[in-house]
# Entry
Amino acid sequence: MDAINKQEKVRRYEEFVDNRLKPDLVHAIAERDKVFEQQKIFSDLRRNIENLEKNSVTSLRSLVNLGSEVYMQAEVPDTRHIIVDVGLGFHVEFTWSEALNYISAREKKLAGQIEEYTRLIASIKAQIKMVCEGIRELLQLPADSFRRERDF
# Structure
């Protein structure tokens, strides 16, 4: 294989890594982070409901963020029913036990999504490593020197 052909192949492989695989990796990590955030929100809600149950709280006062860090004092006369955002702009009124059942099911679904994204991330990283190994072989470089030079 002549040097120009090698250089062209190396350039195309590097473009594939830089223009396709790395953006896919960044996107997958960002999507997984969004799911982690949703998981935290549901975990916090579960913990709050459990605390309300444990302490037999039937009413409470709270500060509510109206937006732009503007707060208003709110009074909840009956905490035995709560309204939960179930997605797509829909909110459902639940009792504590119904909310805990919903949260449990939602947390299982979110955990599955996290596993899927983690597998996808691992797959993309493996593809990047494989392409970089192909570049190393094309350039006939020793394995250790190439790994230090590439940022992947």
User: Anything to note?
Assistant: The first helix runs from residue 3 to 54. The first strand starts at residue 60 and ends at 67.
